[in-house]
């Protein structure tokens, strides 16, 4: 089938490459000419396991191409995917200007039936906005053409996006038109393994499903962080509590790891946006507000602990930081807890020696050269002369270091373990002062 994808960001690029991989002809359209040129040369702007290979192979096969030509994009695909960004407005609501711009282009150039598939995370009711925008453009051209708008939200996880797309646990299709459902069933057939993963529903339910999924996951994390903070104050160990509650299949072991807060481009943005959507329909979403407030506080927990340990005397201290990305297997630092920590340390006069397996260039791009930030080539060198080590991202490479070597490099053997990677008892035996999240010392 012929498919056009507007937006070559995370979602667009992964969707395009995976749909091409199963034999479709995909044309990716992006307004950023520089990005399109780089993609045409085979340079992938993001780090995502497996994506590079997929893009290069399909580009070479001629099943995946990139362009800035919007008209060519509208002419190419029966399916017109919208996968552009919906950044938060100042008030937290999703900014739909890019979605609207794509809808206008489709309306301006289309010459025959099109299925417009929305993959961007958008407020409930956006499909109607897209429909109205396309209709208005067609009316201005005085043409009468049929089209349908579908909500098909994406549930990719960064770091596992290709795998998630190729082997989805569900494919949510929201449309009110049976003919379109049939087309999407054909499109997604290669991704249904033992049984159909398609979950068919109306457009608005599909739009809400996306927010509900992310809000639920964010709620699990904030809930566990709240329990961790309580455990600390009550002399309990959150790791024991986690295993204790996870064994109940209704709760489950997934996504109940306490830590120094959730980050990334999705949870913070989507929880805020859903809160805003609720406010617009006069519903006070108190649980969502609490999820966000608990997370904001949790992102400051490591700093508060470091400050208390050093009795507020942070000027001139050197803190080693392991992990900059908001989670492992990505170079993404959007809303990363590492940023909250670094910025607070700098404001208090401390300096940072940081290492991350993938996000060093991103950190350099964000903060540039500054005297209180040293980006180190290896995890060990970040420790040289450090007064403390803070572990912010649970990359595997940090899980089992040679603690004697770690101690030898540091000025003081103090570890702030923001992801509960280390056993407090072992750490104490090895001569470390260890602070976990909700751990019993
Ligand atoms: C998230 C969802 O997991 C995807 O299903 C969704 O499709 C995606 O958002 C999206 O809306 O596009 P992602 O942002 O890539 O994916 O990251 P996650 O793996 O979900 O992690 C989010 C944050 O939660 C990270 O900072 C992670 O460290 C934190 N986390 C996760 C915890 O603190 N504890 C946990 O138990 C799990």
Automatic annotation (TrEMBL):
<dbReference type="Pfam" id="PF00984">
    <property type="entry name" value="UDPG_MGDP_dh"/>
</dbReference>
<keyword id="KW-0560">Oxidoreductase</keyword>
<comment type="similarity">
    <text>Belongs to the UDP-glucose/GDP-mannose dehydrogenase family.</text>
</comment>
<dbReference type="GO" id="GO:0051287">
    <property type="term" value="F:NAD binding"/>
</dbReference>
<protein>
    <recommendedName>
        <fullName>UDP-glucose 6-dehydrogenase</fullName>
        <ecNumber>1.1.1.22</ecNumber>
    </recommendedName>
</protein>
<dbReference type="Pfam" id="PF03720">
    <property type="entry name" value="UDPG_MGDP_dh_C"/>
</dbReference>
<feature type="binding site">
    <location>
        <position position="210"/>
    </location>
    <ligand>
        <name>substrate</name>
    </ligand>
</feature>
<dbReference type="InterPro" id="IPR008927">
    <property type="entry name" value="6-PGluconate_DH-like_C_sf"/>
</dbReference>
<dbReference type="GO" id="GO:0000271">
    <property type="term" value="P:polysaccharide biosynthetic process"/>
</dbReference>
<feature type="binding site">
    <location>
        <position position="334"/>
    </location>
    <ligand>
        <name>NAD(+)</name>
    </ligand>
</feature>
<feature type="domain" description="UDP-glucose/GDP-mannose dehydrogenase C-terminal">
    <location>
        <begin position="320"/>
        <end position="424"/>
    </location>
</feature>
<dbReference type="GO" id="GO:0003979">
    <property type="term" value="F:UDP-glucose 6-dehydrogenase activity"/>
</dbReference>
<feature type="binding site">
    <location>
        <position position="86"/>
    </location>
    <ligand>
        <name>NAD(+)</name>
    </ligand>
</feature>
<feature type="binding site">
    <location>
        <position position="327"/>
    </location>
    <ligand>
        <name>substrate</name>
    </ligand>
</feature>
<feature type="binding site">
    <location>
        <position position="121"/>
    </location>
    <ligand>
        <name>NAD(+)</name>
    </ligand>
</feature>
<dbReference type="InterPro" id="IPR028357">
    <property type="entry name" value="UDPglc_DH_bac"/>
</dbReference>
<feature type="binding site">
    <location>
        <position position="35"/>
    </location>
    <ligand>
        <name>NAD(+)</name>
    </ligand>
</feature>
<feature type="binding site">
    <location>
        <position position="30"/>
    </location>
    <ligand>
        <name>NAD(+)</name>
    </ligand>
</feature>
<feature type="binding site">
    <location>
        <position position="263"/>
    </location>
    <ligand>
        <name>substrate</name>
    </ligand>
</feature>
<feature type="binding site">
    <location>
        <begin position="155"/>
        <end position="158"/>
    </location>
    <ligand>
        <name>substrate</name>
    </ligand>
</feature>
<dbReference type="InterPro" id="IPR036220">
    <property type="entry name" value="UDP-Glc/GDP-Man_DH_C_sf"/>
</dbReference>
<feature type="binding site">
    <location>
        <position position="269"/>
    </location>
    <ligand>
        <name>NAD(+)</name>
    </ligand>
</feature>
<feature type="active site" description="Nucleophile">
    <location>
        <position position="266"/>
    </location>
</feature>
<keyword id="KW-0520">NAD</keyword>
<comment type="function">
    <text>Catalyzes the conversion of UDP-glucose into UDP-glucuronate, one of the precursors of teichuronic acid.</text>
</comment>
<dbReference type="Pfam" id="PF03721">
    <property type="entry name" value="UDPG_MGDP_dh_N"/>
</dbReference>
<dbReference type="InterPro" id="IPR036291">
    <property type="entry name" value="NAD(P)-bd_dom_sf"/>
</dbReference>
<dbReference type="InterPro" id="IPR001732">
    <property type="entry name" value="UDP-Glc/GDP-Man_DH_N"/>
</dbReference>
<dbReference type="InterPro" id="IPR014027">
    <property type="entry name" value="UDP-Glc/GDP-Man_DH_C"/>
</dbReference>
<feature type="binding site">
    <location>
        <position position="158"/>
    </location>
    <ligand>
        <name>NAD(+)</name>
    </ligand>
</feature>
<comment type="pathway">
    <text>Nucleotide-sugar biosynthesis; UDP-alpha-D-glucuronate biosynthesis; UDP-alpha-D-glucuronate from UDP-alpha-D-glucose: step 1/1.</text>
</comment>
<dbReference type="InterPro" id="IPR014026">
    <property type="entry name" value="UDP-Glc/GDP-Man_DH_dimer"/>
</dbReference>
<feature type="binding site">
    <location>
        <begin position="255"/>
        <end position="259"/>
    </location>
    <ligand>
        <name>substrate</name>
    </ligand>
</feature>
<dbReference type="InterPro" id="IPR017476">
    <property type="entry name" value="UDP-Glc/GDP-Man"/>
</dbReference>
<dbReference type="GO" id="GO:0006065">
    <property type="term" value="P:UDP-glucuronate biosynthetic process"/>
</dbReference>
